[in-house]
Every structure is written in C-alpha cells, then in structure tokens.
Amino acid sequence: MSLSSLGLKGMLSGDIQGLSELQILDLSYNKGLTGDLPAAIGKLRNLTNLILIGCRFSGYLDKAVGSLSELVFLSLNGNRFSGSIPNSLGNLSKLNWLDLTYNMFSGTIPVSNGTTPGLDLLVNTKHFHFGRNQLSGEIPPQLFNENMTLIHLLLDNNQFTGSIPSTLGLVQSLEFVRLDGNSLTGSLPTNISNLTKVSDMSLSNNQLTGLIPDLTGMNHLNNLDMSNNTFEASDFPSWITELPSLSALTMERTQLQGIIPATLFSLPQLKEVKLKNNRLSGSLDLREVHGSQLQLIDLENNNISEITLGPQGANFRIILVKNQICEESVQLPSYCIIPQPNPRYSTPSTCPSVACNSTEIASPNCQCGYPYTGTLEFRAPQFFNLQNPTYYTLLEQKLMDTFHSCKTPVDSVSLSNISRTSLNYLDMHLEIFPLGQVRFNRTGILNIAFILSNQTFKPPKEYGPFAFSADDYSTFADAPGPGPVNGSKKSLSVAAVVAISVGCSAFLLVLLCIGAIIFYQKRRPNKTVDPTNTSGFMSSSFWTYPGSTASTLQLSGSRMFSFEDLKKITNNFLEANCIGSGTYGKVYRGTLPNGQLVAVKRAKQGSTQAGLGSKNEIELLSRLHHKNLVSLLGFCLEKDELILVYEFVPNGTLKGSLSGKSGISLDWRRRIKVALGTARGLAYLHELANPPIIHRDIKPNNILLDQNLNAKVSDFGLSKPVIDDGKGHMMTEVKGTMGYLDPEYYMTQKLSEKSDIYSFGVLMLELVTGKPPIEKGRYIVREVTNVMDRAKDLYGLHEFLDPAVGPDVALKGFEKYVDLALRCVEESGDDRPVMSEVVKQIEEISEMAGLHPYSDSATSSATFDRRYSRKLYGDESLYSHTAALSLRE
Hints:
Helix content is 20%, strand content 20%. It is of the alpha/beta class. The strands form 11 sheets. The protein has a 13-stranded parallel β-sheet, with no helix packed on it. A 7-stranded parallel β-sheet has the order 1-3-5-7-9-11-13, with no helix packed on it. It starts with 8 loop residues before the first strand and ends with a helix.
C-alpha cells in the first residue's frame, strides 16, 4: 500500500491491524498525518517495509514496532517522534535500513544488557541514520562489534558527549561516518585508521583534543572534515599526502601550523582544500598541482608569506585573504580578494522562453505544466564547489535514468536553489515534470514518490546518502479521490483511505465471485456426463477415486468439446499438426475459432493406462488454477474417445531447451527463473490445493516454457490427492521416473510431498549441468556430493556446469542454489525443506543474481539488470519497486 503525497490528514487508526497480509506500507509526504503511531502497527507481522517519511507523526515510538520480525526497511525520518529509541528495535534481525533522522528522539542509544535487546544486535543492518535529533550521553562502546555489516553511521547534529569509542574501529564495513555537530571530547581512537573502506568521514564541530591521529591506510577516503575542534597544535600531517583517493580536505580551526607540503597538491583526485583559520606559514608551493581536478584552495586567515605557481598558472580559485602575502601587497592580486559567489546553479533550458499561464511552470524541455516538487537533501556530500555544473548534470541524468527504467511518465527534471546548510547538508529544490500531459495523475505521483522514498534512486557517489521531502501536490489529472484535486484543498483521512481500501477489496472479491459464477454457468455444458450410460473410458467405475463417487464428480470447471469440434480445430488430427507422442497417445496443435492456440492430447483408444492418466488430469486440473500449472481448457468424452484440450505453451519442454533441440538458450538467470516457477507451481499443489496434490513425476519433460520462459508444471497423469490419515504419508504403488524417483518412496512405498521435493532437487541439479540425472552409470546426486568442496569457488563444480549457463563470474547465488538442491535430495524426507521454504530460498537467489523474483517479462539478462536491480549504496539488495507496485495495484 503506497499512498505517498496524497494530502492525507488525521491520525492512523488501530484498525490498520486488519490488513494482516500487508507487506509494504508507504504513507510518506502526507504532512497532515499526525498523532502517535498506534501500537496496532505491531500486528502487521508480514510487514517488510514501513516508510513514513515527511509526515507529522509525534509522541513516543511504540515498542510494538520491534514485533515486526520481517521488517527490512524502516524509514521514519522527517517526523516529530520524541522520547527514547525503543530497545525492542534490536529484535528486528532482518532490518537493513534504519532511518530516524530529523525527529526529536532523546536519551541514549539503547544497547542490549542480557535481558533486553538493543541496537548492537542489529548486525545485519547496513544503515544507522540518526542525525538531527536530541540524542545525548556517550556513544555506547557496546553499540559496535566486528560482526556488524554497517556501511552508514550518521550520528551528526545530536548532543552526544564523551569520547568516540575505540570499538568503532571494529566495524570495518563502514563507508560513511558522520559524528559532527556534537560535543564529543577526548582523543580520537588510534584504531580509527582500521576503517579502510570509509570514503567520507566528518568529525567537525566537536571538542576533540589530543593529536590528530595518523589515518595512513585509509586508501578510499575521499572526504575528510575535522574542522572546529581543539586538537593540539601540530605541523601539517604528512600522512595526508599519502591518501590516494582524497578529494576534499577540510581542516579549519584545527591548530595546524608550519608549511603545507607541496606533495599535497599532487594527489590525483584532489578538488578542494579548506584550511582557513589555522597558523600555516611559509611558501605555498603549487608547482606540483596534478591535472585539472583542483578547484579551490582556501587558506584565509593564516600566515602564508609567498606563493609559487607552476608554468601553467592557476586555473582554480585561491583565497589568501588575511595572510602575510596579502598584507604586504601594494596592488592586491585576485587571491587577496574574497571572490563574490557565483550565481546558484539552475537547470538550463534548451529552448527560448515559453509563455505559460500564471499557474504553470515551463520545463527544461519547454513544456508547460504542474511539476511534482520537493527538496533533495544529501547528508554526506563529498564536494564543496556548489557552482560546478558537472555535479548537477550528472545528478539530473541519474534521476532521469531511474524514472525511465521504472517506466514513470517523466518528461524532465530541474534543480535549483542549491545550498549547503549550517548542518553541512546539501539541499536543492527538485521539480519533476509530467510527460505528455500538464498534470500527473495519482499513479504517476505514487510511482515517483515510491522511487524516492524507498531509495530506488541511487545518486552519484559524490552526493552520499539522501532523503527527499515532497511538497503538497494539488493538481492531479485524474478524477477525484484520495487527496486534493485540481487545486482543491479537500482531502481524506488515512482512516478513511484504509477503510476504503479494505471495503473495496471486499467488494471486489464479491464481484469476482459473482463474475466467476456467471462465467462458469455460461460455459457449463448443457448436457452432463452420465456415468451409468457409458462404457470404456466413460464407465461408472472409471470415474471414481477415493473419497468421491461418479455421481458427485465435479467436471464443470472445464469445457466439454465435441469430437467433431476437435477434428475441425486439428484439421482432422492431421499428422503434420502432431507436436508430441508417448505411451498415452499423441498431442496435436489446434486453433479454436477465436484464434487461441491449444494443445489437444488424444489418448490411445482402448489403453487403460492412458485413460487412467487422462482421467486423473481432468479430475485434478479442472479444479487447479495457477500461473505455473498448465491450464486444462476442456475435454471430450465421445465415441470411446478421451481427449484433453490444454493451453498451448509455445516454447515446449524444459528438456528440449536443455538438450538444445528447441533452439532456446537458457543462461544462469533464466534457469533460476525456471526453477522458481516450477517451485511455485509445486508449492501451490502441496499447500494451497484442497486436497493437496503430490505430482509424482517432476522432470524436465513435464515442465513447459511459455513465451516469456515462465515454467508451467504439466502431466498430472500420475498425481495423487493427499488423503489425510494423520500419518503424513500414503502407502501406494511406486510410480515415477528413474533418476528423479525418491529413494525413500521407492524402498518403503510411502508417498508424501517430500517425494516431489526430492525430484525437484534432482531437477535443480539438471538445470545447472544440462545432463540427465543418470548417464553412463553415473548418478548426478552422488557425483556432485562426492566432488563438491565448499572451500573452493563455485564449490569446485566447474566440470559439471553446462557451458550454456554462462561465465563463472556471472553465476551469482550459485553456491546457495547448490546448497538448496542438496537439501532437497537428502536421503530422509524429514531432512528436506517444505516447498514454500524452497520458493523463498530461490526468490533470494533470484535477487542475488539481479533478477526480479515477481517478473514474468521475457527480458534479456541485461534488461533484468537495468529494470529490476534495486540496491542501496553498496551491494545490498533490499526489495523490489515493481513488487510494491503490484501490491498497490
């Protein structure tokens, strides 16, 4: 449920707990939402993403939030929450993103004590964003440990006191550290240089003392700011000249003295040096300036007596105001005058001025309209020259690339009013213009807001982490509904929206049920099957299975075809239309009068076995409906014929693709997709069908691939409904295919869902090897188990891989895939996972491989990368934007 920027007002009702299946709740940018966050939010046990950015929620954050055990993304920034951060947040073991910035939280950061949890337990959380609150006390040493995967630590602009704990040096995954704007004292811990992955570190505006520590080895350090502390007076640190990635150095008012080494300016990435209000003296030697990166040297209020430029002069800004060299100058050179600030950057227009009406705004592409606007706030920008257009054109391009890849109707974006705030944040006004229309509709706004609220947009690295604060949008293009329309100030309360959502869902369900009844009644055959007046396939005993009688057999879910109908659609069962054959008979391609392609499966006349299998499929498929099961459209029971009519699945069997006969190439990602689709089909059979179904013959020949390479489980001739006798299994004659057959079932004749899981595990191994499970006396399960070595790359299984899978470097998630396959083929069924767990694991493998686990589109691997990779800063994968859209729709 994403309801961002809809002008919602009021308080969030405890009735929200009624949405028990809710996974994503995004109410961001609704400034009219006020009051406490109800404790009932803790009842949403399936919630993975709770995003309430830029609302006006207040009061204490209820400890019930710590009950959301599935929570991955928690963003509460830009509200008015107060009181302590709940200890219970330490229970959120799956949490990846925790953003509490810009609230009124107070007290200390909670840590565990043996009886209560704390934030030190969040070892899987990569983002601690706690800036701009009223947190106080010491930063607890227990907060940090070597098991953490933290990459962003933003504790800036609070009221912390005491020293920086040495345990911070244990978190070697850190990339951004902001501790500025507090009252921290004491010396910096000597092991802070262990943070070799840090690219941005700001310790400014504290009361730190002692010597400036040696940061040698921090080779990724890009931005270093230690300004406004009370360090001991010292010469300019020589180790700074050995930081190869340094881009911005800010050490204002840090008691620096002596001469600046000329080698500082030879650093290849150096852009900005700000060292004003120190005691630096002697000659400023700029002969070793490297390339054209350098843009600013600000040494205002020091004691520089001389400057030496290289042969090319200086094509960068130098500020030496209040230095000896300027005081002794008769005619002031340019570097002795504080330069006037350049005009602030604004996105340039590419066309002459456009005449828009008084309420519309012209876009950079000369289109008049009503843009969606707000403020982009960057919390750790690594540059200071706000007039350099290069930074902003790159940012604009990144924004547009994201909007286009997510298929949002955006024409262009515009940036303006760029400024660095007193808290060292970088703010800019963002305007997003609609494509092909004057106003955005609600869907467009919801999509754009979600992209910005859930961190789908990833800015250039120089900008660091960001947050977006949206302005009210009151000019929707679509019909009235939640939120203001066409300038109206009317809005609905969130309680009303939730009630409407639940009510509409219930009403829609009723409509669907009524529609289904009408649909099936219209398509129901006028004549019914009378088992007492038939023979052969139609005999009464034939149409009976345990727990049913011929008189109660339900076949109305499928259409009854006449034999003459099927002769017409297959051109009298023309041999040229035959697309497959087996012990059951033959399968023909056919075309219904409406143009729909179908597969017509005709059982051999007089074959009891074929008849039993076909009869089983009719009984089962007439009541099973899932996108990963082949659909039975109808059947024919005439003239001793038993014919089944299925949807036509154009890309044939998985076996054909693995063998190369179909001409379809299956790379690693496509094979994962096939495995996931098959697993979902089986999970439906095992856990949602009533009664549950055991397939009994899972193998590549029985997996069909549609036009988008989605897997569809087929051939239910051997399938068995599960009759619950309390034993967890059924005693039955062994049926299946050697190589895929569960050894436990084969030896004991005890059939259970775990028998399908064994077959599926063999299928998983066949997907990566491309070979049948038994070949030349070698059994794939045994071979893989004996050879694999978990200490080696790809477990040392290179010799088993099908070359068509792709290069080794592209096999992301391979080890987890193999581990899952081997769990499925454990000797004891009790040691195998259930199918729903298998589905969950393969979904995680899909995301590791850069796939969207909910997509059905037939895209290339490159397209999957572009459209569905949803990562935050770094490599962590959070969740899918498209999945959230599908929930909303």
